[in-house]
Structures are given as C-alpha cells and as structure tokens.
Amino acid sequence: AATGAKPLDLPGFTGENVLQAVDVLNGKELNGKDVVVLGGGTTGCETALYLAQKGFNVVLAEASGQLAAGMENMNRMELLSGLKNSGVKRHLNCSLKGLREGQALLQLADGSTESVPCDALILAVGMAPEHKIAGWLRELVPQVRVIGDADRPRNIETALYQAEAAARTLA
Fold first, then answer.
1. Nearest to 17 by CA among 117, 128, 87, 94
2. Residue 146 has pLDDT above 90, yes or no
C-alpha cells in the first residue's frame, strides 16, 4: 500500500496566510507578493523557485546548514543555481520566531533577528507517513505491504525499489 504522506504542521503558526508547500505547488493562490518559505529541503527549495519564477519576492529559511541536502547532486546544483538566479533570498541555520502583521521574524545563524516582509508563510517542514488507509486495508486483505512515503517519506527511487521488492514477495 503506497498511501502517501501528509505535510507536517508547525504548532503556533496557523491562519489563512499559512499554507503547505504541497498546496501551493498544486495551484493554491496566494495573497500579496512577499513570501517566506520555511524549510529548505527539496520541496521547500522547489516551492521557493516556483514562486520566484511567478514573480513573488521569496525568502527561504532553513534550520540546517544546507539546502536540498537529500537531492542527487547534479539536480541539486541546478536547483540551487535557479534559486540564486531567481533572486530567492536564502537563510541557513535560522528559525522562525514569529509572525506579525505582514512581517516574519527570523532568528539568524549569528543569533541576531531579522524582520522580513511576509504576506504568506509557506510550510515545507517535512512529511509524516499516512498509516490510516493501510490499517483499513489490513482489515480487508490478508497481505498488505506498506511502501513509499506511507512507510517513511523519502524519494521516488526508494519507493520504486520497495514496490519491486513487494511485488516479488507476492508472485
């Protein structure tokens, strides 16, 4: 059962202008022009690039010291180049401290804080496996294998490998 994953929320940050990256990538409209993307993994970086290419002013904030850390290197280099060339402002080793009336307060790597314009906060802080559907399937079918993001969110290569391995055990 490849039943997918669901985006993680960030406790304390809710509202009509706080959106999930997957919703933005699926076409959800944004209000305003200034956007902060929180999370610099593959999804966060791709969302930041997508929004910059649509004309938004984008700040990308990542808690670790590296953007798109889990990506294959050639694709990662192309994505990072696209972010730079599209004018995405990038902050590493930083965290979101708060939102106030069109502003996001970021704590930067050196311990200082910076207030940046923010009409919309886009969350790309990770995914959690969706187990509910697999549980229902187990009640109906004698042999269920959980694969892909439903097992643990990773990448398409891993999901395909798991699918092939599961198919071999069923044959």
1. 117
2. no
